[in-house]
Amino acid sequence: MTQKLTKKSDAYSFGVVMLELITAKQPIEKGKYVVREVRTMMDKKDDEHYGLRELMDRSIRSSGHVLGFGKYLELALQCVEDSATDRPTMSEVQKVLLDIPYADTLPKKDASVGDSDVFDYSGGYTISAEVEPK
Predict the structure, then answer these.
(1) What residues does the Protein kinase domain cover (predicted)?
(2) Residues 75-107 pLDDT 10s
(3) pTM value?
């Protein structure tokens, strides 16, 4: 808002990226700002999806209960606080991320099956498989 970069500016940007990962939406899409959309729809009483079921990336939504999702979402929202004094530093963000349990959130795959689709892209962008030289 001030057009001045600070240590807390990185936290804000990172929080936006975290919300992009949760929603598979661009920061501003169809005139809607992802931060405002999440804040508007969020309901802390909903233990599983926090009121964001319809806004969430379909791969996250369909995976059932995601261990640590609430802490991840809370961290993302702390990072996008309007006031820089209310945001964590990136070193604080790192500490919180390391404490969020994540190992059990990925589906277990049989190693003999071949390529895993755990990290298949589910967002709205189209990605070309061809790399063209400049």
Answers:
(1) 1-103
(2) 999 999 999 899 999 999 999 998 887 544 445
(3) 0.69
Residue 113: inside a domain: no
Phi, psi of 34 (to 5 degrees): -55, -35
CA separation for the pair 35, 60 (Å, rounded): 18
CA 33 to chain centre: 14
- For 88, the domain range is 7-106
Residue with tokens 């990226």: 17
In a domain, 134, yes or no: no
Closest CA to 20 of 8, 7, 33: 33
Structure tokens that stand for 71 in this block: 């802490």
Neighbours of 26 (CB within 10 A): 15
